[in-house]
Amino acid sequence: MMDKNSKNMRRPLLGMTLEELKPVVEEAGLRPFAAKQIARWLYEKRVMTIDEMTDLSKSAREYLNENYCVGRVAPKAEARSVDGTVKYLFATRGEGFDFLVGGKGGRDVEAVYIPDKERATLCVSSQAGCKMGCRFCMTGMQGFHGSLTAAGILNQIFSIPESESLTNLVFMGMGEPMDNVDEVIKAIDILTAKWGLAWSPKRITVSSIGKLDGLRRLLNETKVHVAISVHSPFAPEREGLMPVERAFPVRKVMAELSNYDFAHQRRLSAEYIMWKGVNDDFKHADALAALLKGQECRVNLIRFHAIPGFEHVTSDLRTMEAFRDRLNERGVTATIRASRGEDIEAACGMLSGKESEK
């Protein structure tokens, strides 16, 4: 984020914690309790402008308008699926502020809204692009363009039309959340704090390729659910798909996670994309069951949404069902995740890639 004192730059209030709002109200000549007032306007009443914060004095609002902004940006594009899934595209810059740090900038990010009976889930991004280089991921192919601030993460949640009907949130969009762990945890704090949205952490799932330093912080500082991208139980094969296997072997990741309680307050999942003739036979199922043995972990089997430049195709439903049943027979709870939004190319990075080409 750019310095708020730079010419024409204003700092977003969205994404600030209660502690961060306290010096802001002091600057504006307000009493300390005004920090809670601003938090209520931002996170409970969801205002778009500082002028809507009518219980603040006019002089305070004028000062805030000169130096700060709410920091809300509406989606710049959307794609709607026949199944109700909606992919939204967000700019990473607003009028006088920036949602990105630590990268080249200039890239949009995506969020995907997924309605399903009584559930309404939003899949959010934590970065523009990604450093991890997974071969099957369109986001990784785009390179790394910066990490989102907490404001940039929360803007995806607050600025879609379905915002107030959301029941669940998953950090499974663009980027590796544990590569931006400070801002991800900060966003989670705001979502779950009493002065924020007051969500239960059970409504939030964070997905990771297994970056252990960030995972330890996430597990120690929050109570959200965790999902680990596995995709192969065999180290050489996984490394060919996910270079991160060299630094964070999945066996080491699962061994580390066995030190945490996933039987009560939180849930652990293994994400497993299935490719025809690659990782979908019983040898892989048995090895995956062995990898997860003794761990409270469920497996989500996922159809692959094809992307340009990747040679493998998704497994057929019959093969996926046989794989699921094999895992269940070996004591591992496995389900096949319903495929959503394939007609709008819901795989992460597809919409932003098209807009960038334009």
SSE blueprint and pairings:
Blueprint: E1 11-12, H1 18-27, H2 34-44, H3 58-67, E2 68-69, E3 77-80, E4 86-90, E5 93-94, E6 97-98, E7 100-101, E8 109-116, E9 119-123, E10 127-129, H4 138-141, E11 144-148, H5 150-158, E12 168-171, H6 181-192, E13 204-208, H7 212-221, E14 225-229, H8 235-241, H9 250-257, E15 268-273, H10 282-291, E16 298-302, H11 317-329, E17 334-336, H12 350-357
Parallel strand pairs: 1-2, 9-12, 12-13, 13-14, 14-15, 15-16, 16-17
Antiparallel strand pairs: 3-4, 4-8, 5-6, 7-11, 8-9, 10-11
Q: Write the CATH fold name of the largest domain.
A: TIM Barrel
**Morphology:** elongated
> What's the Cα radius of gyration?
21 Å
- SS class: alpha/beta
The proportion of strand residues reads 15-25%
Distance between the termini: 26 Å
Write down the overall mean pLDDT: 92
The CATH superfamily of the largest domain is identified as: Aldolase class I
* SSE pattern: EHHHEEEEEEEEEHEHEHEHEHHEHEHEH
The figure for the number of domains is 2
Low-pLDDT runs of 5+ residues are 1-7
This entry's quaternary arrangement is: single chain
Strand arrangement within the widest β-sheet reads 3-4-8-9-12-13-14-15-16-17
Number of strands: 17
Name of the level-1 CATH class of the largest domain: Alpha Beta
Helix content: 25-40%
CATH architecture of the largest domain: Alpha-Beta Barrel
Largest sheet, described in full?
Answer: 10 strands, mixed
Number of helices: 12
